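Q: Can someone sanity-check these two? First one:
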Amino acid sequence: HVQLVESGGGLVQPGGSLRLSCVASGSLGSYVIAWFRQTPGKEREGVSAISGMDGSQWYADSVRGRFAISREGANMVYLQMNNLEPEDTAVYYCNARLMSRNYWGQGAQVAVSS
């Protein structure tokens, strides 16, 4: 079992930046790591993902060009969020998936407001 812990959320003004971190209790070597976000009353949506096999990345249309996902070492994943918009306000979750294994973090609140 892998535990994931997110950090780095907070309140930022529109146009500002935040970097979310996700640290795992074990190696994430071959896992696909993704960031999801959720607002009250809406389904959780995928934001970005990175493959542990070849490093390929995916971004939702709404964040492409503003967000960047990266990995560091065997157990750390980041989501750099630039030019934040009020619509980016949500709880952000880190997810690690490999075959039947599927782990979630507890979430980090991001609020974008002036």
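And here is the second, same format, sequence then tokens:
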Amino acid sequence: QVQLVESGGGLVQPGGSLRLSCVVSGSFFVNYALGWYRQAPGKERELVATITSTGTTNYADSVKGRFTISRDNAKNTVALQMNSLKPEDTAVYYCNARWRFNYWGQGTQVTVSS
């Protein structure tokens, strides 16, 4: 049974930073492609960033240069460092893991507001 547990969300002022973390339980973590997605109220869930099993990263245009995705295979974790946050980054952020099957975390709220 694979479970994903996110942490690190919260309220931050515009221009601030947050770091999200996701722990993936189960074996074969190194094989997983990992990603962060977000869903704002009234909008579809959208890709934020992904990282493959070999470390190749991909970012949505809206977060390039501000967000960084990373993985730690020794700790079964994937992180999202978010800098220069904007109000439009406000959303529920979901961790995703894909290998044979697709797994999702429960989501963590990020609110950017003054």
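A (reply): Looked at the second one. DSSP finds no helices and eleven strands in the chain. The chain has a mean pLDDT of 96.
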